[in-house]
Description:
4 helices, alpha+beta, flat, 128 residues, 41% helix
Amino acid sequence: MIFHRFLRCIALRARLSGLWGKILQHIVKLTRQKAGLSEEPTQALIDSQSVKTTGAVEQKGFDVGKKRVKRQIVTEDIGCLLYVLIHKANQHDTKMGYWVACLSTFAYPTLQKICGDGGYRCSFVYEA
């Protein structure tokens, strides 16, 4: 039990210090190099998922009558994870997709194009 708390504490410190983001960016660079592509991605895909939660999650929303949270995931063209944002399920993809797109372009300034499905309703074109 103490060991699990210790691991959670280390993970939280790494997230708050930005270490996880740096590790993720390094993995993306290495993967793109091995694939013979430039180190920095220029295109990305965005999608959302509604995920069941447990009682321990503080931020919940209602998505079609179910207690859930949503995660917005941004991947680059060969499938490497670029950014993840978890939020309440009652916040629509158009609003939260705009925020995750902004955060992704901040983390990866070389992104020129982010594509999403119909759930985003061209929100990037109008908001950006």
